[in-house]
Fold each of these.
Amino acid sequence: MRGAPVEVLRRVPLFTDLTKREVQQIARLFKERRFAAGETVVQEGSGGAAFFVMVSGEATVFIRGKKKKVLKADDYFGEIALIDDGPRMATITATSDLVCYGLTYWDFRPVVEANGRIGWKLLQRMAKMLREARED
Amino acid sequence: MKRVVPLEKALDDTIFGSKAVGLGQAIRDGLPVPPGVALSGAIVEAVAAGEQPAINEVAKWVGPLGGPLAVRSSAMDEDGAAASFAGQHLTLLNVPSADELGSALSQIWWSANSDSAITYRKRVGLFTRPSVGVVVQALLDPDTAGVMFTKNPVTGDDERVIEASWGLGESVVAGIVIPDHYRVDRAGQVLERKPGLKRVAVRTVPGGGTVEEKVAPELVERLCLDDDQLLELNRLAGRCEQVYGPGRDVEWAIAGGTLYLLQCRAITQAGR
């Protein structure tokens, strides 16, 4: 299989406003990445430049050392890094062997730069997310 | 450019990375490098993306090498003056055959795009898209291997500093053992022989990967290089300096009585 599952990507808040065709365009850019059980998938505070969708396996999310939740197939993480390639906000550890699909900042950015419609929708969605975060 | 070429035809480090081009230069200059091919950054990425034509092209070139294989990253801006990617990008030893290469290339591509690699790139001021070429070579099964500095990296003295241990050189590079330590002057006179504590040897295992194997007690502190081998290493150091210039950091291996050059790069400011 090439690319990430479209139906999972359509549930990612950042991509909610995109059409199926636009999501398919992005899904094709994902590459498979495997992690062994026990491996640190992302490290809180470290630089990050990829967004991942989980296909199988289980991972645990920690923030400042405290266990926050367990991720399973069809869960995703790291989407904000696609926009700002900023530091990771949590540590995620593989609790079993993981198969993920990952998309890097460098692969995502040219799509957005070349497609104003996608860029505008992402901008609107980011504004909504920011507004919601301020209201919380 | 999605390309695979024999190592000796890897000429452009913006396409194949500095390790591939360095080894290609070594072969063209008659240095003893194990046979192999260079994969461009673009074809490595295409394989990582699951593109079948790219997978077929790589298999066509790598198949004749047989197996097992050593699969080493060769980053475009690797080993530059400001940024050394040693330790950031993966090397996979003992990939059983061309059939398992796709997964190995995917791991190497992601190692250049991992969080730790990104963090490192930012720290050294690199904000460009990572691209990683790959060198695929027949994997040696060495009796002895290690590293050699063509001048002393600590004192700057004009002498060869050699560190050696049993089995694959990864035990030396990764600091798994205290290697034997030798100093040899340019004329080949051995200035110092200091046995290390080589309790394990890194060996290949059937089916892929490597294992740390216990070394027989009588070999733990026995010197693993004799004077003839030190002389040969000294000659290799001289040839490397002729080809690449002074101050080289060389990875080498002795398999079946033959000395091979695995990598040659400039000594970094901090040594190794």
Note: The domain at 144-266 of chain B is CATH 3.30.470.20 (D-amino Acid Aminotransferase; Chain A, domain 1).
Amino acid sequence: MSFIFLQGVSKDYGTAQALRGVDCSIGRGEWVSIMGPSGSGKSTLLNIIGGLDRPSAGTITVDGADINAMKGEELARFRRNSVGFIFQQSHLIPYLTAAENVMLAQYFHSLPDRAEAVEALAKVGLGHRLDHRPSQLSGGEQQRVCIARAMINNPGILLADEPTGNLDRANTRTVLDLIRDIHRQDGYTIIVVTHDPEVSRWADRSLFMEDGRIVTDEPICR
Amino acid sequence: MSQFAVEALFVGCKEGLVLALCLALITAYLRGRGRDPLVRTVYAAVIAVLLASLAVIMVPVSVEARAIAVKMAGTLFGLVYLTALAALYHTAEPKDSGPVAEALHRPAVLGPVLFLATIAYFIPDMAASTLYVSDLQEMAGGGVLVHITAAAGFFFALAAAYAVARTFPLDILRIAAFPQLLLFLALIKLLTGGVRGFAEISLIPSVQSGLMKLVHDAVHQLLVMLQVPDHPILTVSAWNFIAVLFGTTAGLILSLLVFLLPLAFFLRKHFGSPIAVPVGLASGAARRAYLRGVRDDRMLKSLPVILFMIVITLTWFSQRGEGAAQRYAPTPVRLVAESGSISIPIQSPGSSLLDGRIHKYVVQEKGVDIRVLIVKKPDGTLVAALDACDICPPDGYAQTTEHVVCLYCNTPIPVGTVGMPGGCNPIPVTALISGKDVRITMKEIAGKWMAMMIGEGKKGVRR
Amino acid sequence: MKVLARVRSFLGSEALTVRLAGLCIAYYLALAIWSKEAFGTIVAGLTGNILIQALYVLFFLNVSFRVVNRMKTELPVRTRFALRLPLYGGILLFLAMFFLSLNVRHSKWLLVGEGDPVELSRDAGEYRVGTITSALEVRSLRTERSAIFDYEPALTLLDRTGRQHQITAFPPVKVGPAYLHVLNFGIGPGIEIKQAGNTLSKGYMALRLTPFGTVDVFELPPLPYRFSLSILPNLVRTTGTEVEREYDLARPRYRVEVERGGKVIARGETDSVLRFDEGMSISFDRPSDWVLLEIVRDPFYPGYVASLVLLIGGAFLYPFSYLVKRRDPA
């Protein structure tokens, strides 16, 4: 049985159709990349899978739970417990330190725990930058803080929207290495939206979208 | 409707509301715990209580039995509160339940225990209130109106409470485990446990005066062992220092602290005790989620305790000592002396000297107002005294549940000792008491009043 | 050794403290509701009831073990330890001294006048009351502003060698094996009861007539009379709204009431004599001063006082210990 299953998912914004009847299934522990031109519906699809947006039609189940049927507190609980997000813009709180940004995610989940946050940051190679604010971190370091923040509550699913979009080659490599470690060691299900074929090649499988539809769905051969 | 019927209505409403509230809590708890058969046991016990209360109307009850009923009300509160504290302590201490608790969980044991406990909880107040309603009926001159209004108030309150309970169902298990339930029941008993209608709405004044006596006795014992002299011969500064400890405010605060200290200990333990995380959740988000769940549960379970502490603290000072609001100080009725004496009928429309309250009268002699009070003592005899004492300025007396209180120095005098001379006691006067009236000569009261006015000790340190 | 460890664990357990406290509260409650005098009964039990004494000793051991265990954990942080030690030490010392003092103390009250002998103990030698300073002036003018409680009596105690000890109300003075202080004092009117000119009874009555206006009663068996007495001002002067009362204690004015068989048979105000009944009279002579002396033999008294000082000082210092950071165990 698929871990994430979409059937006939559509999304309309007024007269514009962002998604048109998308069918897709993703297995547990798979790394999928979603590629496509601007406006193809990649980010919309990602947001719907993560419960940040609702489809206009269709069903989506994650680990057997119907996301569309969830409301309010239940949906918020799903987002908190099951999904970690990484965005192109890091969205770190500028007046909190790296450790505090990670602890904020803990706070909204259950309880802050500095020791655990420190351990998570050490895992992403930022053990020496705990008390630095985002403005004191490079783009790559900020993105690594985002990864630690996304994983701190053991969600099981990592959704990344252009995580390396603002990074240079070296930092891109570093971030992708981290995501690969998460994938291999912790068995996360990872979905990465990217326009970069190099980034897409790190995944197990690549979906190509155009005009709100999945056009191709191919495994990546390495 | 006469004042007695109004008071009977009030007593009936109060008992009905208390019964409804307690039943709602107990049955919601039992149903929440999946113990629905025990709900029937509780209802059966309540029916037994109501039948017993009715029996009290029919069967004559001695003075001693009445006194026992009143004392049982206080004892029950103490027992429920202490049991709640013991249960709170055990929940704060992570332990296996002992043999007693295990035995209690067996249905064969739990049913009868619950039946008896329910009866014991409700019967003292119900019986005492029923006796009081019978007293009201006697004071009203007989008839059934008083009992009917009491019953009407009772059933009206039950019906109203039932309607509210149906509209707002109670999910009590979110905030109350067994200890918190007991604490709710103790709070209800404390706030509504008085047995004499308007004169005694709650047990707080009795509990306060008991605790203040404890504080007073403890401090007194410490000072006696320090070899501090009798107070009349201390210097003003030394007396003022000690008077702070014996004063009303210090006594109120200390007695409140004594009362709430066990709950404060529980809260400290409750929030401070370590949480044993299950082995499978050794680290990470699951562990934090578990901890959060336990802490949220602790917070919810502490709410009844905190509510108890807030309610008691707020009401403690509004019913200070034996209550400024609870003090009964009637306006003296003016009398005119005839043939050198005053005569007060024992029974008159709307009032009776035998109602246990102080009755004050004022009569003029050579331009001076002389006040007299008459009260029925607990042993049933009437006693007359001046509304003044040897020592204090003649501000007079007010009455609380078991005492008359000097309005100048706040000294409580047990009603049973009115009639004895000396100290802060009202100056006794000789009175001729027949079955019809109380007769006192002007020579007696004028002579004693004038002598009292001349005494020097009155113009003492004004506080 | 295992048994010893278990005993130590039991004695030092919080559960034992809670259970003993609960037992005490339940007992006090039962007494307070059903017999009125609860505190006194428990204190009497501490001196006479072996079960209550045993429970108290168990409680003391429990508190001691817990305090010692607690102080062991506080020891590494010296400042914190020092700030907490007085209170903990005061608690232990108080519990011990209170109990010992209650059980060992021997006290007696002695009503004495000038020249009376005072026995402190069988082997302490003889003492005698020297002068009594009642602090009541012979002639005094008292107004509304005069306080009730401004008397400070004192007496001198002479031993066999003529050495004087000044005894006042507080603090108590150690004389030989005992502590002495003035518990109360008063005026003792000189009273003579006569019948048809024959003296039936004569002497000084130690009555509580202060503060002025206080009424005291006395009887003189086998005479069937009850006498009520209070001191009246010799002169009352009203100046505007202020009332002044003048007292002459060399020749006080008394308000006298005589009862027989529960009925008042005579009432009057006099500084010399009042006649009542058939040929009876009561007359008053110059009063003397009396002092009620409390004599206490208690070797633990200094310890008791020290424990109170420690408790009060310790309670003051204790909150400051929270300002000292706790060192985490290494």
Note: Residues 78 and 186 of chain B are 8 Å apart (CA to CA).
